[in-house]
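Predict the 3D structure for this chain.
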Amino acid sequence: MGDFLLLVAHGSRDPRHARTVRALTRRIRSARPGLPVTAAFLDFDRPSVPAALERLARLGARSVVVQPLLLTRAFHASVDLPGVLRRAPASLTVRQARVLGPDPLLTAVLERRLHEAGLGPQARTATAVVLAAAGTADPDAAASLAGIARRWQRTGWRDVRPAFASGGTFPRTEDAVRALRA
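Done. Predicted structure below.
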């Protein structure tokens, strides 16, 4: 068998997260019908990455490309996921791809999502955006998010603020929203 693609997301207590990852998996299957693709999660949701790798090995996979659905190369992409992949079944050759961001294509997707939410081009100069990510203790990851926000703001949004949902990283999402409303 050829390569399998394993999408790996962080996972969340919010059920919308897993639904979104599964919808992305279906879209990739539709766009690339010859590519076997499945998803797994580092936390909260199932299947776990080890369970997904075991399943792929049972299906006869020989090679798996793991695509982290993560914005930065912080802990999960640089420590957590590689540690899990080192314990993959011996019958699998596993390669980890780069994280999603920062990449101009990611900003294009974010733009599309804002337009789908009803913000037309005319609203851009009057609209501020909070670019929220999970918390991180990695200063490079925090700087990466801030860089994405700066570049994105240059496209004409009134303001784009980086923020973090958890992990003791600042600014917190609710603080960024409060500051923009002030």
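The beta strands are 3-9, 37-41, 63-68, 93-96, 128-133, 159-164.
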